[in-house]
Amino acid sequence: MIREFSTLRPLLRRYRWHYLAGVLSLLLTSGAQLGIPHLVGQAIDMLLPGVPGLAARTAPTVMLLLATAVVVAIGRFGWRYFIHGCSRKIEAELREQLYNHLLVLPPEYFRSHKTGDLMARATNDMNAIRMAIGMGLVAFVDGLFMTVAILIILFGRNPRLALMTILPLPLITVMIIAVGGRMHTLFRQVQEGFSRMSDQVQEVLSGIRVVKGFVKEDFFTGRFAEANSYYQQQNMRLVRIWGLFFPIVTFLSGMTILILLWFGGRALLEETISTGDFVATLSYLQMLIWPMLGAGFTVNMLQRGAASMQRINEILQTPSGPPVIENPRIGDLAEGITITDLTVRYDPQMSPAVDRVSLTLRQGETLG
Fold it and tell me: What pTM was computed for the model?
């Protein structure tokens, strides 16, 4: 999957510092968010009935929460500006590169590739690539960082309780590995279905006078309905798997909270943990749901982007060499032009466009 993105390596290298700034902003945002449950837990432990000076004791914690909110807002703007901005710029440059390459491809390429399919690759596939190198990167980095950081915090607070609550999480990893391989094939079939439908529309609209002149509206309506149905079927195959994935992930993530309520509630009644620690642990587990879902989003966007990148690479890797001229022999230009047995092929697999043509042009003569 990753090798499909090798075409973007020069563009990614050019914007590497922007991506680095975006990743640092993302880590700043996530790190600040990790401090919120701890501060809330401290504030709850301070809310003890009958203890004087409540406002004085909670004021520093409230100020830290406000400062954390400001840091989160600044960091969130930063990663959106740098990462999403870079993905937009790379999309624009890749689309320009694709367009320039299409202009130098030989005519026979366009005889074997339909216009609607090429337009779909230049639009729908480009959007999928942008999402992969933008939001896909965000979901991967944020999910990995949050997962590792939250697990470290939980085990640092109460190792036994943390071990009990994360028991359902390995099942999510197994699901991601099992679903990932199937996604690439399904996403490619969806993109091909979109290309097929786009080609039907382009063909009819470009030849609408012929369609109406021969009263073929019903015929082409049936062809579009067939292409539309195929596109819908491919999407439904994808939705069946994807629609099952997220509810299961949400269920397994909810199981961690249920386990916490059981074992953490008993520890709270036994006064082995404080109320603030219990609330903070609950908040961290709820925050852990996003990285689990983020892993699914990452698989989704990277697989979709890889399938689209593969379709773009098929165009970019098509050679754009000049037509093959076989055995050209040109005589002395001072006495005119003599061509003997000229053969021109636009593709080695095609019949020659010009086959063994011989001619002589003297000075002042014109041949058309």
Answer: 0.70
